[in-house]
């Protein structure tokens, strides 16, 4: 194995001593693991431009002290049992060729930011974790076939850079198939393929924000957006949401550079913004010359009624940047999403994307383009929409069975609901911890990547429940366990006769 050694022939310290120190340091620092085979003394001497004797002397000293084992005819290895008194010493002291420990004083790094939790630690046996597709729903066979086909015809596409804004076939499919479903009439040129909405948020922030820029944001909001804007040192102005989404009348009347909204299915509360309020939001943006960033993260799933057109589809003044994602329809592991930008931002967005990463990986884009073009994506969506609607019904039925009349929002769309806890139930944090004791994950706002800026009435009495990744048996069992967990703490559930399986009923939204 090649090891990073730098010898200084001008140092007062002999070469064999420098070599000894540096190898020893690599071993103690854990960079050379026990059992690692080192280069032969001849090979290392050639590599370092020193005599073989220099290397031999250093190796022999290391072997005598127990760091190395030299086996005749086999080679030189890092010992499995290092000398104990050495392990405690100098572990983290970088080696300098002149023997003094290096003390590096650094300035604080320029980046300041907080990250939202994206990875579930999976401690719970039944977790109503939000926004995850059913792991069994991924169209693995079709995907594998398309991957193979595209790889066979890849030519130079894997060895050369592609168009930074994204593969034109994919952008065409998005413009022709997905745009119209949202009421958006866009050219493929307006589409930038990104690594999910999160990268879309980054790109738009890069385009629009300077330090101190004012960003209006929903309260409560998606933490991934709030943290991102904070990391750009924007000044956030939280604007409360009600059951029609962002309260447009509460938006500041000047100085705002962009407003971030989730109008199809407000994150986290699930409210849908009605048409009249959408039009007022667009009018506000026009008056201020502000942009609206429309995060349409899960609108593939609408279970009742026709969807409202996206803000971008209603906009006549090029004020909206639209973000879509395949994270909920296919899977977050793909890291695929897209931006649709007004024409005047196309050049800047393409440049920003080039600077960020020179474009998105070709293979995933090519496969997705073909999956869309073949109609496979539409079939897949139809299938999972039906199954998610059944899961949602099962969740609502189970909640009603065990908890009586319930108030929920967001059940007509998306992959999670918000359960507004009645006064007879404990607060959300207590509900969450009681459920967790039974291995069930219920999530209050802080544990669901939601950001409450204060003054928001929902935090204490709202639980968010994702239903798409659990099957009906798991959903029923999970809610039954929550009810059981509450029994000792909560009088009103006592005496309730619980069936083995909740009665199926048809849910009517309140
Ligand atoms: C409101 C909202 N926006 C954006 C995202 C991020 O999605 P992506 O995986 O496309 O980055 C999420 C993820 O759950 C979300 O809930």
By oligomeric state, this entry counts as: single chain
Strand content: 5-15%
Give average pLDDT, whole number. 91
Catalogue the ligands.
pyridoxal-5'-phosphate
Overall SS class: alpha/beta
Q: Do you know the CATH architecture of the largest domain?
A: 3-Layer(aba) Sandwich
Instruction: Estimate nothing, just give the exact number of structural domains.
Output: 3
CATH homologous superfamily (4th level) name of the largest domain: Type I PLP-dependent aspartate aminotransferase-like (Major domain)
Walk me through the structure.
The protein has helices at 15-28, 41-48, 52-64, 84-87, 140-152, 168-181, 196-208, 223-231, 275-288, 311-314, 346-357, 362-373, 376-403, 428-437, 472-486, and strands at 37-38, 68-71, 75-78, 126-127, 191-194, 214-219, 221-222, 235-242, 245-246, 256-261, 291-295, 320-325, 337-340, 407-409, 416-420, 440-441, 450-451, 462-466. The protein is 36% helix and 14% strand. Strands 5-13-12-11-10-6-8-9 form an eight-stranded mixed sheet, with helices on both faces. It has 510 residues and is an alpha/beta fold. The chain has three domains: 1-105, Arc Repressor Mutant, subunit A; 126-131 and 379-493, Aspartate Aminotransferase, domain 1, CATH 3.90.1150; 138-377, Type I PLP-dependent aspartate aminotransferase-like (Major domain) (Aspartate Aminotransferase, domain 2).
């Amino acid at each position: 194995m090649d090891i990073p050694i730098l010898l200084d022939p001008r140092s007062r310290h002999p070469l064999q001593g420098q070599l000894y120190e540096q190898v020893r340091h690599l071993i103690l620092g854990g960079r050379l693991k026990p059992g690692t085979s080192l280069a032969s003394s001849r090979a290392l001497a050639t590599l370092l431009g020193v005599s073989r004797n220099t290397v031999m002397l250093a190796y022999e000293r290391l072997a005598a002290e127990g760091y190395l084992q030299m086996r005749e005819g086999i080679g030189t290895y890092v010992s499995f049992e290092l000398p104990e008194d050495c392990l405690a010493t100098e572990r983290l002291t970088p080696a300098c060729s002149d023997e003094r420990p290096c003390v590096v004083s650094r300035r604080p790094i320029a980046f300041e930011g907080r990250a939202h939790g994206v990875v579930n630690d999976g401690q719970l046996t039944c977790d109503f974790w939000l926004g995850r597709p059913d792991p069994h729903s991924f169209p693995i066979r079709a995907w594998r076939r398309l991957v193979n086909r595209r790889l066979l015809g890849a030519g130079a596409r894997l060895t050369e850079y592609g168009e930074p804004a994204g593969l034109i076939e994919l952008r065409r499919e998005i413009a022709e198939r997905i745009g119209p479903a949202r009421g958006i009439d866009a050219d493929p040129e307006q589409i930038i393929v990104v690594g999910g909405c999160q990268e879309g948020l980054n790109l738009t922030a890069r385009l629009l924000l300077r330090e101190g820029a004012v960003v209006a944001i929903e309260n409560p909001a998606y933490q991934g957006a709030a943290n991102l804007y904070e990391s750009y040192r924007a000044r956030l102005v939280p604007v409360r949401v009600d059951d029609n989404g962002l309260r447009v009348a509460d938006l500041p009347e000047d100085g705002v550079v962009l407003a971030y909204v989730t109008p199809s299915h407000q994150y986290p509360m699930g409210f849908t913004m009605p048409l009249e309020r959408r039009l007022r939001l667009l009018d506000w943006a026009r008056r201020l010359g502000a942009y609206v960033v429309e995060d349409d993260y899960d609108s593939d799933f609408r279970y009742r009624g026709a969807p409202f057109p996206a803000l971008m589809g209603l906009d006549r003044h090029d004020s909206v940047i639209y973000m879509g994602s395949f994270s909920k329809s296919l899977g977050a592991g793909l890291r695929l999403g897209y931006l649709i930008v007004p024409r005047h931002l196309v050049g800047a967005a393409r440049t920003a994307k080039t600077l960020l990463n020179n474009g998105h990986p070709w293979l995933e884009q090519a496969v997705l383009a073909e999956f869309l073009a073949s109609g496979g994506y539409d079939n897949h969506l139809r299938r999972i929409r039906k199954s998610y609607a059944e899961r949602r019904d099962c969740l609502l039925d189970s909640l009603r069975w065990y908890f009586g009349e319930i108030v929920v929002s967001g059940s007509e769309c998306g992959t999670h609901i918000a359960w507004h806890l009645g006064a007879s139930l404990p607060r959300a944090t207590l509900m969450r911890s009681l459920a967790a004791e039974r291995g069930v994950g219920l999530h209050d706002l802080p544990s669901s990547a939601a950001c409450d800026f204060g003054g928001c009435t929902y935090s204490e009495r709202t639980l968010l429940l994702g239903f798409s990744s659990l099957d009906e048996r798991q959903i029923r069992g999970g809610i039954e366990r929550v009810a059981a967990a509450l029994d000792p703490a909560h009088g009103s559930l006592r005496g309730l006769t619980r069936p083995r399986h909740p009665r199926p009923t048809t849910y009517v939204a309140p």
